[in-house]
Amino acid sequence: MHELRRIIGYLGHYRRDAILGMVLVIVESAFEMVIPILMADIIDVGVKTRDLDFIFRQGILMAICALLSLVTGLAYARFAARATYGLGARLRAAEYERVQEYSFANLDHFETSSLVTRMTTDVTVIQNALNAGFRPMVRGPVMLVIGFALAFYLNTELALVFCAVTPIMALAMVFIVRHVGPLYGVLQGTVDKLNDVVQEMLTAVRAVKAYVRGDYECEQFRRVNQGLAATSEHTFRFAVLNMPVLYVSMYTATTLIMWFGGQMILGETLAVGELTGFLSYVLQILNSLIMISNVFLLLTRSLASVHRICEVLDEPVDLSSPADARTEVADGSVAFRDVSFKYRADARERVLEHVNLDIPAGSTVGILGGTGSGKTTLVQLIPRLYDVTEGAVLVGGHDVREYDLAKLRDAVAIVLQKNVLFSGTVRENLLWGSNKATEEELLEACRQARVDEFLDRLPGGLDYDLGQGGVNVSGGQKQRLCIARALLKHPKVIIFDDSTSAVDTATDAAIRQNLAALEGVTKIIIAQRVGSVQDADQIIVLDDGRVHARGTHEELLATDSIYQEIYESQTHGGDSAAESARDGLAPGSRLPHGEGGER
Question: For helices 112-119 and 121-154, what crossing angle results, to 10°?
């Protein structure tokens, strides 16, 4: 219930609409509950004495009560809708903003499909529960209390007959809710799996078609879809028992009351109008119990979604800026001081072990190593995408944990191993680097990244629509656009994580030449080709998470066996050797398997 109260707290300024809606439901219910008393008076007084004026007056009062009930009901609908959909919008916004604060480690705790489900389906479940349950949640208890009070006012003996049936209904409701509650959590988990399969298929649809694996994907979807159907059937098979139990109880109570009421009428201890009015209240009470039971079922399902949403909101963000954070990065110098790292605290092996490096400001550093050697992990520690497990990473002479995260990441640009472009135009994507960049600055960055070679051929140039994820350009063009975007940040440190793997050798050389002209910017280049880093001031060779060797191209070529093998395979090797070289690994090299470079 603490989580439920927390979610309701997200109503914010819509709380006023929710309170007004509750007041209007209470007023509407009060008007409706007056009508049976007026109807009983018409039968017992007006009809019995044949007083048409009395019948007419009571009829007008009934019509007024019905009209006021209608007006308040319509007003309630307006305020309830504002509160319900306002809460849904605020919950989605809160989840989305929270995810933006996550570090890479936080994101590792959730499947992408699960986050999508929690922001859409789970919020919709809560929204629907509030939309469908708001009125009965307020109206049910109000009508129950007023109905019982007026039923006892009309006839105590008959009210006691009805009270005997109520515990049976309550026990049945408790049994159903306790059994169904856990099943709703399982149901939402099954929805996660379905979304995961759909997302994976849509993301990799080109590979599916290229390998003619459509039938396999359909079978995967069929299996998960049938699992969702079976889970839904099992869950709702118990949930729908609610209505039969309640209706059996309702008709049993009505039959007993009519039986005892008829006996009392024959014994002249009860008037016909009283029995009619009493039956109206009985039906109101039973309907209120049905409403309350439905609210419990809606609440039970929504609690599973509430818990899943609170997991997103309560995920402790493991990377944050310190209270007295530094806001200025002095220069682009980078240093690793006895750095060790593992992705999870309970992991048995470290990805990086005892790394010590010094990279002067403005220098160019190349990083080579086989798959799984920790190249990408190493550079992700510089903009603090992850925190070190042991040791410290220094930028500008200070520990990265001392900086304001936004300021640090503004000073460190990284072109990720996997190219990421967003839906929109070339201009809109480049402005991610600097939203205040002028036309001249955009074109200069395009020239430095060799985007100008194909920009003129794109219809609209900078205003060409790249499509979702940049599907309208090739892999090499994506890489060059990502490099241009990073250059627009005017960073003190720029990291290229195998960012030219999809471009030809001549373009790669031209980009390196342009980058070399950047003054005061530290350039760290992860590459698979020796040619991409051989002109660097320093080349670092990683092996199994450790620094195996460092030096210039000439020094490593003369002293390091691994570097010699990589260089030999790329310059003099055959076809098979060349294939190995593209993975940064010479034939027979002892570098391990694991983390690989994206193409």
Answer: 40
DSSP β-bridge partners for residue 403: 326
- Domain ranges for the chain, please list them: 2-314, 334-417+492-582
3-state secondary structure at position 524 = strand
Residue 448, sorted as left (phi over 0), alpha (psi -120 to 50) or beta, turns out to be alpha
Q: Tell me the one-letter amino acid at 87.
A: L
3-class SS at 523? strand
Q: What interhelical angle do 52-101 and 272-314 show, nearest 10?
A: 10
| CA neighbor of 136 nearest in space, from 343, 293, 260 | 293
The SS3 assignment for 403 reads strand
Position 1 scores a pLDDT of 61
Q: How many CB atoms lie within 10 A of CB 367?
A: 29
CA distance linking residue 249 with residue 254, whole number of Å: 9
The pLDDT tens digits for 25-43 are 888 877 877 777 777 777 7
Residues 6+ apart with CB under 8 A from 284: 32, 33, 36, 143, 147
| pLDDT, position 501 | 76
CATH 1.20.1560.10 fits 2-314, yes or no: yes
Using left for φ > 0, alpha for ψ between -120 and 50, and beta otherwise, residue 350 falls in: beta
The partner residues of 392 in beta bridges, in order of sequence, read 337
Cα–Cα distances (Å) from 24 to 69, 314, 511, 573, in that order, read 9, 35, 69, 83
Query: Considering only CA atoms, which of 375, 359, 389, 366 is closest in space to residue 591?
Result: 375
- Assign 591 a pLDDT band (cuts: 50, 70, 90): very low
The letter for the amino acid at 504 is D
**Which is the CATH superfamily of the domain at 334-417+492-582?**
P-loop containing nucleotide triphosphate hydrolases (3.40.50.300)
User: Residues with Cβ < 8 Å from 341, sequence gap 6 or more?
Assistant: 350, 351, 352, 374, 377, 381, 386, 388, 389, 390
